[in-house]
Amino acid sequence: MSKDITKFFEEFSGYLNQYDRRAATFYALDLLKTAQVTIPELYEMVLAPALNSLAVPRDQAEDLIWREHTVTNIVRGIVESAYPYVLAEKERFPMETNPGRILLACPEEEYHELGIRMGADFFTIAHFDVVFIGSNLPLSNVLSATRNLKPDYVGISVTNYLRLVRLKQITEGLRAQLDPSIKIIVSGSAFSHTGTSAADFGADALINTFEDVVALGRSAHEARA
């Protein structure tokens, strides 16, 4: 983290620690309005670290889970409010072509969707055609959406490492019924927590940062050249 971004992180974290939705929202959006940060910088170096620093200890979850929900909802509101800045950054982003359509979802019993929601904005900036369909989706629903929307990529996000147990079954189910040209990508903090890779689950790529998204887009462009 650069010195300036560290300052932004610390000030934003102070508002989040106080559950001050108004101050946190005005502060984060002003950073974008005054061009002090980009969307990737805000998400990766301010919002996500601030959320992670407020993690609830497992042995206190029964009493403090409300805290995690409260700060998550504050950050979710900021992300939704930032969409006009996402579109403005897309206009400035130097991507030669549209890399394709990507469908993003969380599998059944995975309710942590904020990470992939931020990721949807990263894909938008990089000129992907993005469809974010949400959390807790059975394989049958993901397949139905894929048949109707005809994406080039299907992205599955897993935050809770316990959900990784079924991820290979999900990717195998997608492979069995989708056009073989459709690439399956995975994302989420569960991978960094367990040291696993995309290959461990039969996926084509692991995408967790804006730079990962940009690399995927450029790879698509090169493949078409």
The total count of strands amounts to 5
What would you give as the CATH superfamily of the largest domain? Cobalamin-binding domain
Radius of gyration: 18 Å
Annotated CATH architecture of the largest domain: 3-Layer(aba) Sandwich
Average residue pLDDT? 91
Q: Would you tell me the structural class of the helices and strands? A: alpha/beta
Strand content: 5-15%
Q: Give the N-to-C terminal Cα separation.
A: 36 Å
For the biggest β-sheet, the strand order reads 2-1-3-4-5
Main beta sheet:
5 strands, parallel
Determine the number of helices (DSSP H or I, runs of at least 4 residues): 10
Low-confidence stretches: none
Order of helices and strands: HHHHHEHEHEHEHEH
Description:
It contains ten helices and five strands, in the order αααααβαβαβαβαβα. 36% of the residues are buried. The longest helix has 21 residues. With 225 residues, the chain is an alpha/beta fold. It is globular and about 50 Å long. Strands 2-1-3-4-5 form a five-stranded parallel beta sheet, sandwiched between helices.
